[in-house]
Amino acid sequence: MKGMHLPDIRMLLQGASPRSSEMFPELNNLLNTTPDKAEQGKLTLLCDARTDGSFLVHHFLSFYLKANCKVCFVALLQSFSHYNIVAQKLGVSLAAARERGQLVFLEGLKSSVDVFFQAQEDPHPLQFLREASAGNLQPLYEFVREALTPADNGAAAWRCPVLLVDDLSVLLSLGMGAVAVLDFVHYCRATVCCELKGNMVALVHDSGDAEDEENNTLLIGLSHQSHLILRTEGLATGFCKDVHGQLRILWRRPSQSTARRDRSLTFQYKIQDKNVSFFARGMSPAIL
Amino acid sequence: MAAVATCGAGAGGTESMAAATSKSNVTSFQRRGPRARGTDSGGPRLVSIAGTRPSVRNGQLLVSTGLPALDQLLGGGLAVGTVLLVEEDKYSIYSPLLFKYFLAEGIINGHTLLVASAKEDPADILQELPAPLLDDSCKKEFDEDVCNKKPESDIKMKIAWRYQLSPKMEVGPVTSSRFGHYYDVSKRIPRELIETSKWHGFFLPEKMSSADKVECCSLTPGYMKLLHFIQNIIYEEGFDGSNPQKKQRNILRIGIQSLGLPLWGDDVCCSENCDSSHSLSKFLYILRGLLRTSLSACIITMPTHLIQNKAIIARVTNLSDTVVALESFVGSERETNPLYKDYHGLIHIRQIPRLNNLICDESDVKDLAFKLKRKLFTIEPVLST
User: What is the CATH classification number for the domain harbouring B351?
Assistant: First the structure.
């Protein structure tokens, strides 16, 4: 692979300590990006197999908030306080961001209880929970669109809109078909990435050999649309205290023909209290 | 952290919870135990909820599972607001024990119980709970507690007479301020303890007979009724902190036995392509939503060995917080394996939640076996040569 920018392996081996508790600076280096020069119009797919890839969600959430973007976070898996407490370790306050209008937070667990036990007057983004048969995710899309479309006063308060979803596999568990979820992603991409020139980041679990066909359909469909895929995997050899897993980064060009091979990098990582450190395979500081 | 948020003071550690509890009408008299909690020296003693303790790692409020060995493997205990899913062993011999330990621990700590089952009457389940093992120093306290706890307590207090004038408050049967107790499965829990404890039962055959109108939804009717039942208890008894009139300073322990059995009306255990394939996962999601917004903890046992569709098991695991699987040696080839001759089965910690944190307390030891010996359930690492 010619002309590829290799991050400085030496710097990785030294285990660069974070300048401040700001997301994961090592991951920023690997992705060759900083909050100041965040790209636009991109779909990033986060995928985890045999491990928990939620640290990537926390990274992107704090990254885009630091980048002064308007973020709509569809948080289906955990409560607001969970994300907030972790974000504070990474130097961002979700509560403050929500208050100043930078963050629109849909707390799935709490909202599901509201919509399930009480009939709502207006269509609720999680309206499908009350429906008998599999519906579609249009109310959820409308919610996202309304959250990220800038107000009519014209003044651009924020840099660019970002949609973050944790995670799409939950929608399948709640009765949505893979096609409905792919439709939702398509509509969101059209609005957020193309029309509003923003970004979209979504997490999907890779169920591996669990033969979850719907999930596989969703994963493959999204992989083809993504510009960047970050795939975390548990180690094939099993649990290790010093190496929590392997991260594969794949840069893609979904719209153009693949005359040039997509480039990819693979690293191993260890998650710590406020940071994630990355190292080349087999180069964990613990064994050197 | 949901548990703290419901106490009204917003995100933070246990300080806000303590501040909220100190202004309830509780006397400042605090039993001096060997592990007295709260601030020490100076100032009024903080009243914490019996049977809970904050996690060392992130201040999350924990309750004991009733099995101290399991508490240790889970990083100190089960977090309030989360689900513990127990994958049943093949003939359902040992998973009912974990279920009962959890409930018994609730009774000892004075927690409110909610027991749901499709095959056994909750009253019968409670009768069969194991008796707590108390060492001698605590036994005397325990006897006194049982006597003092009679509802018709116009017993004149001779020594602490001044406290007779203060408003009567419900004292839970806290026998010791220890977190997590040991139980003797060969003895039954004393009847008085059950009678003075607060519990709600959900026995599916009884609930289904009433012709309530259940709104059409993709959930099986049994799951719908159970969710409404749980939500009702949480709301009515103030476990979600929504009603300022009913300030609840107690934990609700929910136990759901053998979820997913055909008795619940679910066919997830019957065939691979089941019609109601989303019913179970939807139930779990909404249940977790209820738990996250209330002071409750839930144990669910599930016969996953009967579920043929592996995708459903994966989804159920992702929607649960802590997942523990029991594998008994009965009837398997491991029964004759000399490595396992001292044990009754293996226990797999499949998943531990990362709550308010990037990392979680995973145990280094992954090969764990359990045995039920001399009335005690113990978990040990498998010693392999």
Answer: 3.40.50.300
Segment B291-319 shows an average pLDDT of 92
Q: Is the dihedral of CA A273, A279, A282, A284 positive or negative?
A: negative
Q: Tell me which range, A130-144, B127-141, B220-234, is most confidently predicted by mean pLDDT.
A: B220-234
- B interface mutation test: which of A23, A111, A173 has the most B CBs within 10 A? A173
B217 vs A84, A130, A170: nearest CB: A130
| CB spacing of B292 vs A109 below 8 angstroms | yes
B82 chain-A contacts, CB cut-off 8 A: none
Residues lower than pLDDT 70 in chain A: 1-23, 134, 153-156, 254-261
Residues of A in contact with B281 (CB under 8 A): 173-174
Residues of chain B neighbouring A175 (CB-CB closer than 8 A) = 218, 278, 282
Q: Cβ B11–A133 below 8 Å, yes or no?
A: no
User: Do the Cβ atoms of A110 and A118 come closer than 8 Å?
Assistant: no
What count of other Cβ atoms lies within 10 Å of the Cβ of residue A80? 21
B27: in domain: no
Residue of A116, A118, A218 to mutate for B, most B C-beta atoms under 10 A: A116
Q: How many domains does chain B have?
A: 1
Collapsing DSSP to helix, strand or coil, A199 comes out as strand
Which structural domain range is residue B208 located in?
61-134+178-381
DSSP β-ladder status, A228-233 and A43-49: parallel
Coil/strand/helix, residue B333: helix
Residue B123 vs residue A237, higher pLDDT: B123
Distance from CA of B235 to the nearest CA of A (A): 12
The pLDDT score that the predictor gives to residue B148 is: 47
- Cα–Cα distance between B270 and B261 in angstroms, integer? 9
Q: Is residue B327 domain-resident?
A: yes
By the 10 Å C-beta count (0-12 exposed, 13-18 middle, 19+ buried), B333 is classed as exposed
Measure B121 CA to nearest chain A CA, in Å: 27
pLDDT at B25: 42
Count Cβ neighbours within 10 Å for each residue of B293-318 and write b for 16 or more, e otherwise.
bbbbbbbbbbbbbebebbbbbbbbbb
> How many CB contacts within 8 angstroms connect chain A with chain B?
117
Determine contact: B274 vs chain A, CB below 8 A. Answer: no
Measured between CA atoms, the residue of chain A closest to residue B352 is A52
In a domain, B185, yes or no: yes
Answer yes or no: is B147 within a domain. no
Q: What is the mean pLDDT of residues B119-139?
A: 81
- pLDDT of the residue at A19: 38
Which tokens sit at A96?
Answer: 């403050």
Q: Which residues does chain A have within 8 Å of residue B364's beta carbon, measured at their own beta carbons?
A: 241
User: Which residues in chain B touch residue A18, judged by CB atoms under 8 angstroms apart?
Assistant: none
In this model, does residue B174 exceed pLDDT 60? no
Over residues A44-88, the pLDDT tens digits come to 999 999 888 999 999 999 999 999 999 999 999 999 999 999 999
Q: At what angle do helices B310-318 and B279-292 cross, to 10 degrees?
A: 10
Segments in A78-165 forming alpha helices (H)? 80-89, 94-99, 108-117, 138-148
- Walk me through the domains of chain A, giving residue ranges and CATH numbers: 17-31+38-233+250-262 (3.40.50.300)
B317 touches chain A (CB under 8 A): no
